[in-house]
UniProtKB/TrEMBL annotation, chains A, B, C, D:
Species of the source: Mesorhizobium hungaricum
Domain GFO/IDH/MocA-like oxidoreductase: 137-269
Matches recorded under SUPFAM superfamilies: Glyceraldehyde-3-phosphate dehydrogenase-like, C-terminal domain (SSF55347), NAD(P)-binding Rossmann-fold domains (SSF51735)
Keyword Aminoacyl-tRNA synthetase in annotation: no
Span of domain Gfo/Idh/MocA-like oxidoreductase N-terminal: 3-127
InterPro entries: Gfo/Idh/MocA-like_OxRdtase_N, Gfo/Idh/MocA_oxidrdct_glycsds, GFO_IDH_MocA-like_dom, NAD(P)-bd_dom_sf
GO MF entries: nucleotide binding; oxidoreductase activity
Pfam families: GFO_IDH_MocA (PF01408), GFO_IDH_MocA_C3 (PF22725)
Superkingdom of the organism of origin: Bacteria
Protein name: Myo-inositol 2-dehydrogenase
Length: 369, 369, 369, 369
C-alpha cells in the first residue's frame, strides 16, 4: 500500500492525481494506492479538490502533507520556485518525491535538492513523462539493437505557439526573473529525450532571439521583453555525436511538437510528439526498390501499450504517459529497475540549460561540465 | 453518489473500470462514484479483479451484482451473446445499464432489450465511444453550422488487420454462428458515427467477400470460412444523402482505421480514427490561392478536451473517449442532456446491419425500415 | 524517323506536342521525331500553334494532316465526339494513331474504331497516361512478384472538384448529351489502373447521385442537372477479386486524387495520384514490432524515372507521364513490346462504364460481358 | 530567335537540353529557340549527343561552341572546376551564359567570373532552379503580402543520402580538394531559397562533422575522409531575422529534402522539396477552433503552373523547374524583368559558404561581409 500526498492541484496536479488513481487498474502489477492527503493554497480549495480527486484529506498548508505519517510519497506540482523548499522538506521528512520539472530556477537550489535526495536515500523522481511513450521506449530499444547502425547525427526540435501572439500583454514569463525563456521553459523536455536515447551533452553553442521586442502593459505603455522565446543550439554529445536542439515557444501552428531525427550508418528514425502514437523508421536492409520510411503505429508489442489497450493503432493519450511514469515510480520505490529521470540526471539537464545560456551570453562554445 | 456494478473484466471490462475510476477526477462536475461490485466467471477471479480495480466486492455470479442494492448502474462487458439476459435482468432490477455494443446477435433479442429498457424507464446506454472524441464532436458542430454547406456525399471506411493472416487457424469468428463477419463485428462502429453526424440510413446495397476460403483446424485438415471479412455497402441516408460504407477486418496494415470523408457544397471534412486527435477541413471561403485541407489538432477549444489537458496538440487516448462516455452516462442518469447512443438508436444500427446482410443475400437494394 | 501529325492544340494537344518534342532527348533510345503537321479549327490558329509548337505546317482542316504523306502517326486530341470520324479516317489512311480517351460517346462508335484499327493493322493507342508513372509500374512489378501475396480486395477512388461549385452555371457537362457524368468523364482513368494492375472487370453494381439538382442558366432561370457527378460502384474482377470504384467530380478539396488501396494475403499497397512520386507498402515479412506502411519515393531504380533524373526523390511531373507514354507508342510502332492501352482494352473499359450506367438504371448487378 | 550552345551533356547538360527543347512549346510567349552547337569531351560523343538532343552540331572542343557565331547563349554544365575558364571565355566572346552552380571551387575565381560578366554586359545566370517552383514563388508572394505577418524566425534543412553508405569506397568528394563537403556541395541550394525569400545572410556560426572517419580505398586499405557530410549553422540575416541552416548528405532516407519552416507574427509556412507541388500555411486569421496547417496543392492559380497544366493537383516535375528557369533566362536576355539568381547574388551565396567554413575552422561567429 502506497500512501500518496499531493501538493498543488492545477494542470500537473490533476495530472498526477489521475495517474495515481488509474495506475493500479491499468497495470495490475503494482500494490494498492491510497490517496491520502493533498494541499492547496487554502483549506477550502484543498477540501474541494480532495473531494473531486478522491483524496482522504485536504489541507491549506503543504507542510501538513509532508508531516502526514500515512503519506509515503509526495507529488510536487507547484510553480518551480517552490520546488526546492518543498522537495527538501519532504525528503527530510522521509518521503519519496515525484517532482515536476524543471527542478528549480537556480542551479544551486537544484544542487541542494539533489544533495537532500542523496542524504535521504529516498526516490527523488522528476516528471519527464515524454520518455515514457511506447514509441520513444521502442526507439531506445531499436537504437540499442543497432537497427539503424551507429548513430552519427541528431536533430531535435520543440515548438509550441503559446507565446506567439504579439498582441498578448507582457506577463511574468517575459520578465528575466522567470529565467532565460524557451531554454528553461521547455528545452528541458527534448533534453530528457536526448538523455533517454543517447546520454549526456558535452558541449553547446547557443543562439537566442526575441520575436517581439516589447509587449503591452496594463498602464497602456509597452515594456521590453526580457526573455527569449527562441533558442537554437549546436550540440556535441559525450559519445561524440553531433546534433542540434532548436526550440521556439512562439512558433505559430505548432502545438506540442517535439520532432526528433536520428541518423545512423544503416538507417534513420523520425518521431514527433504531436503524433506520439507513431514513429518512422528507415532501414537499408530493405530491398533498394522498396526502401522508405515506415510509419509504425504504437501497438501492444510496444510495451507497456498493451496494459492500456490490447489492439494496435488505438492510441494512448498524454495522461497515459503520466500513468506509465507513476508505475515506474512505484517500481522504483519498491526497489525494482525503473525507467525514470531522477534528480542526478535532472540536475545534469539543468546544468546543460545553464551552459547554453552562458554560451549565448559569451558567444562561444561552452563545455557543460 | 453513483454505485457501480461491472460484469466482465476483460478488455472492455477494464476499460469501463478505468472510466469509472477517472471520471470524477477528470470532469469535476459529476458526483462521487463508488465502485461497488463486479462479477467474473469465478469467485476467485472476481475477487482478484475487485482488488485490482478497487471495487468493494467481487462475485462469481453476475446476478449478485444485479441484485446488489448499492449498485445503481451496471456495466455489461461480456461477449455479445450474454447481453440480452443480463441487460434485461438488470433493467428489471431497476438498474441503469451501460452495455457494450452490439446489443445482441439476433435482432429479436435486441428488440426485447429495448422493450425492457422502455418498461424500466432507466438509462440503457451502448458503448459507442468513437462518437465522443473532441474531433468528431467538433465535426458535428461544424456540420450543424453549415461550415461546409449542405452535405451531399459521404464515404466511411473501417479497416483493421486482426483477421488478415491466412495462416491463423479457424476460430469462432469464422463460424456462421458468430454472425455475418465484418458487418456485425465492426461495421456498427462507423454506423455510430454516421448516426451521430447525419442520422439514419434509409436503404442499402451490400456486397461481401471472403479473403480466405478456408482455414486450418486442429486435426490437420481445413474448414471452410463461413463469415465475410469484407463488406462494401452503397447507402442512402434518410436525408437523401448518398454514400458508401466499406469495412475490412483482413486489411493488412490498417490497425484502427475509421476513415470518414464528408463532402458538402462549400467544403469537405476528413477524419481518421487512427489519428483521432486531428481532422481535416477544406472550405471554399479561403482565398483560392490558399485553399487546402487544414490539419486541425484537437485542443482545449474542442470540448471536452480541456478537461483532460489545458494545452493543445497533446493528445487524448482511446480510454479517454470511454471516460467522456462515462460522464455523459452519469449526466443521463442525472436527467441532464447527454450525447449518447441508447438502445433505441442502437437497435436502429443493428436493423441497418441486418438489412445489409439481407441485401447481400438477395443481391438487391433493401430498405432498412 | 517518325513523322508526327497533331489534331487539336488545347490542353491535351499541347501535352502531346510537349511529349513528342521531348521524347528523344529524354530517352535517347528512340529514333528521330519530326513534327510535321498540325490542325486547328482555323488556318490562322493552326499556323500560330505550328510556330509555337515547332511543327513544320499548320492547317485549318484536319484531313490535311491525315493525308500528309510525311505523317506516320496522328495525335487526336479533339473533344470526344470527333474521335470516331478522325480516328477511322486516319487509320484508313494508313496512319498510326494516339487518341485521347475515352474513345467515343457511344459504344457502337468505339466498336467501329476498334474494327478500323484491326483492319488497318496500325497501332491504335489511347492516352491513359496514369499507368505510366514509375510508382504504378513498380506496383505492377510488386504484384507480379507476389510481394503482398495473393490480392483479395481492391478500393479505387477518383475525386476532383471542378464541378463542386453550386454557383457555377449550367454547362454542356450537365446535359445528358455529354454522357453519364463522372462515369465516362473520368472513371475511365481509375479503370485504366485496374486494367493495368489486375485485369478486366466482370460485373458491377452502381449507384449515382447529383449533388446539385439544378443550376443557373443565362436567362436567369435554373435548369435541372441531367448528369451525375458522383458514382459509387461495387465491382468483381474476372479473377474473382472484389472491390469498389468510387468517383466524384464535385469533391471539394480533391484536385487530382486517384487513391488506390490494394489488400493481399501478405501485405498491402497504397497509392494516390496527387502524390504520384510515391507509394506505400506494408509487408508482413517485416518484424512485427516494426511493421508499418513504408512511404517509398520514386527513384532511378523505378524505371524509367532514371531517364529523367539520376537522383531519387526529385519528382516527375504530369507531362513526363505523357512523354513515357509517347516512348511506349514509338516502341509499339517499331514492333517492340510496349506498355500501353490500345483500342481493344480501351473498348473494354468503355464497355465497363456502360455496364455501370445500366446497373444504376436497372438497380441490379450487371455483367460487363 | 535564340541560338543555343551547350557544354557538357551529363545529368545537368541533358536537363538544360530538355529545358531549351520545351520552353517555347510550354510558354508560347518566348521567341523561337535554335539548338545550335554542343560540346563534349570527344567529337564522337558530341555528335551522338547532338543527334539525341536535336542540336545542329556537336564538337569535341568547347571553344568551338563559344566561337560559333550562331550561338547567343551558352549553357555550362561541366564539373565546377571548369566553370571559371569556360564562363569567362564565353562572356568575353559576347555570349550570355547559363552556368550551373556553384560558380567555382575558389572564391577568387568566382569573383573573376562576376567581373567578366560585368565587363561583358551579358546575362550571367546560375542554375538555382529550386527558386522557380510555383510553391516557392507563391510563398514569396505571401511573404510580401504579409500573410503571416512579420517573419521572425527561419529554419532550413537540406538532406540527401547519397553519401550515407559507410561501405561505399573513398571517392573524390571525400578529398579536401573537392571543397568543404556538404557546405559547398549542396548548402548553396537552400541558400538560394533563403536569398529568394528573405535576402542576404549577415553572420554565421557553423559546426561540421563526419559520419565516417575513413573509407576503403582500392588497395584494400582505408583513407581518412577529409570533407564533412554534415554542417549545422546558426544564421542571422541582414534583416535581423535569426535562423538555422542544417545540411546532411549522409542522411539515410532523405532523398531530395529541402525543408523550410518560416515563422511570422501572424502565422507560419512549411515547405519540403520532396513534395514541392505543395506547401503548408497556418494563419491566425482562421477561427481558433479551425486553425491548422493548410496543405495547399500547386494549381494554375500559382503561376506559371498554368503554362504546364490547366488543372490543379496534377504536379510539375523537377525538369519543369528548369524549363521555368530557362524562360526567365530568355526574358532576361530580352531585357525583361526576370526571377533569377545571377552572378552577383551567386557570388554572395558562395561568400556565405566560405564564411561558414571559416566559422567552423575558428569556432566563432563570422560576418559574411
Amino acid at each position: 500500500m502506497v500512501g500518496v500526498g499531493l501538493i498543488g492541484t492545477g494542470f500537473m496536479g490533476k495530472c498526477h492525481a489521475m495517474a495515481w488513481t488509474s495506475v493500479r487498474t491499468v497495470f495490475g502489477d503494482v500494490g494498492p494506492v491510497r490517496l491520502v492527503h493533498l494541499a492547496e493554497t487554502s483549506a477550502e480549495l484543498a477540501k474541494q479538490r480532495a473531494d473531486e480527486f478522491s483524496f482522504d484529506k485536504g489541507s491549506g498548508d503543504w507542510r501538513a502533507v509532508i508531516e502526514d505519517p500515512s503519506v509515503d510519497v509526495v507529488s510536487i506540482t507547484t510553480p518551480n520556485q517552490f520546488h526546492p523548499e518543498m522537495a527538501i522538506a519532504a525528503l527530510e521528512a522521509g518521503k519519496h518525491i515525484w517532482c515536476e520539472k524543471p527542478m528549480a530556477p537556480a542551479f544551486a537550489e537544484a544542487e541542494a535538492m539533489l544533495a537532500a535526495a542523496r542524504r535521504s536515500g529516498k526516490a527523488a523522481v522528476l516528471g519527464y513523462n515524454y520518455i515514457q511513450s511506447p514509441a520513444i521506449r521502442h526507439i531506445a530499444t531499436l537504437l540499442g539493437e543497432g537497427v539503424i547502425g551507429k548513430v552519427n547525427h541528431l536533430r531535435v526540435e520543440m515548438d509550441e505557439d503559446f507565446m506567439a501572439d504579439p498582441e498578448a500583454p507582457f506577463n511574468w514569463k517575459h520578465a528575466a526573473t522567470s529565467g532565460y525563456g524557451a531554454l528553461d521553459d521547455f528545452a528541458v523536455h527534448p533534453l530528457s529525450l536526448v538523455k533517454a536515447l543517447f546520454g549526456r551533452v558535452a558541449s553547446v553553442m547557443c543562439d537566442m532571439s526575441r520575436p517581439y521586442a516589447d509587449r503591452a502593459v496594463a498602464d497602456g505603455g509597452r515594456r521590453p521583453v526580457e526573455t527569449h522565446d527562441i533558442a537554437s543550439v549546436l550540440i556535441h554529445l559525450d559519445n561524440g555525436v553531433s546534433g542540434t536542439l532548436l526550440v521556439n515557444r512562439s512558433a505559430w501552428g505548432r502545438k506540442g511538437r517535439i520532432a526528433v531525427q536520428i541518423f545512423g550508418s544503416k538507417g534513420s528514425i523520425l518521431f514527433d510528439q504531436e503524433r506520439f502514437n507513431e514513429f518512422q523508421l528507415y532501414v537499408t536492409s530493405d530491398r533498394p526498390t522498396e526502401q522508405g520510411y515506415r510509419t509504425i503505429l504504437a501497438a501492444p508489442v510496444h510495451k507497456p501499450y498493451d496494459r492500456f489497450i490490447p489492439a494496435p493503432g488505438h492510441g494512448l493519450g498524454f495522461n497515459d504517459l503520466k500513468t506509465i511514469e507513476c508505475r515506474e515510480l512505484i517500481r522504483r520505490i519498491e526497489g525494482k529497475p525503473a525507467n525514470l529521470i531522477e534528480f542526478d540526471e535532472g540536475l545534469e539537464i539543468e546544468r546543460t540549460v545553464h551552459a547554453m545560456a552562458r554560451s549565448f551570453e559569451e558567444k562561444r562554445w561552452v563545455n557543460v561540465r
